[in-house]
Amino acid sequence: MDYYQKKVSRWQRHMKMYSEAAAMVNITVTTHEATFDPDAGWVKFHLGINRYALYSRDDPSVPRLLQDMKSMKVINADYTQDEKALKGACDCAQVVKPSGHHLKLALKMHNLGKVMFKPMRQQRHEETPEDFFYFVDFQRHNAEIAAFHLDRVLDFRRVPPVVGRLVNVTAEVLHVTQNEDLRAVFFTSPANKRASLPNACTCVRRSTPCAVVLTCWRARCPPTCPGSASHPASPSQPWIRSYTFSGQEEWEVNPFYCDTIKQTYPYNTGNRLLNIIDMAIFDFLIGNMDRHHYEIFTKFGDEGFPLHLDNARGFGKPAHDEMSILARSHSVA
């Protein structure tokens, strides 16, 4: 816990220097106090992660954590690590990025908890257009929320807590971010809405609905938390789809592909392959065709479970069953 106490002190020093530098050039900045509570919901949640699930069925920290994520004050906003890593790292003329063309932000709460912000891109009743490829589909904030609750109903407990929240983009993003690149991409549209242009235009209301996702897999954890939580393994999903407009992957054309996978580490030992099949069933139920990677806590070795992350492209066609998502289970069976 000393780590977080030092982090609070470092934050306060940083805010003081930031305010003094801004005052020298006659710029007004908003600063917020940071605190650390060892009994905070996110701390208790992290301490409860084990090799079977992110949380237990009766974990009392989950309801408290959801309430904190919905109402707690935001003290900083920045691009996510994925956004930073992907910035300029892909030639989209050759292959479409599997992520990075929708606005996603990392928000820091005043108790040092971190969440991911995904704004509403579609109305809840809207569906994926018929002529959209799966890798350019909209990322829906309500899909993240629904996926979390379905994951709980199915008793997987592998989706980090997600809650809906109204975020004031001006007060809770622009006024607290210290990233000049992030601040520069926002502007006011002719309809007097806040809009951003990270890679593709994202228009949002000044107070926009969003999904707030706990970043339990990338946040720094206390020493007794899974040590690899800040740097998890992220292997490619064996049944990954092609992210080009005309290509096909080997599993789509090779009838013996699954036999090869079953003899390949780590799918030839432990329960990894069975967990991948569970993930396929989950993806089928939410209609998510965009499962290109999965993440695991390496601390738990081969017996760890894959996290069910990035579900925003689910629920786009609720009346359509995409049977190809179940290719993993068909092949193994």
From TrEMBL:
Database matches in InterPro entries: FAM20, FAM20_C
Transmembrane segments: none
Binding-site positions, ATP: 118, 295, 310
Record keywords, A-Z: ATP-binding, Disulfide bond, Glycoprotein, Golgi apparatus, Manganese, Metal-binding, Nucleotide-binding
Domain FAM20 C-terminal residues, every copy: 234-327
GO BP: any one term: enamel mineralization
Active site: 290
GO molecular function: ATP binding; metal ion binding; protein serine/threonine kinase activator activity
Locations listed in the record: Golgi apparatus
GO CC aspect terms: Golgi apparatus
A Pfam entry, by short name: Fam20C
Family per similarity comment: Belongs to the FAM20 family.
Protein name: FAM20 C-terminal domain-containing protein
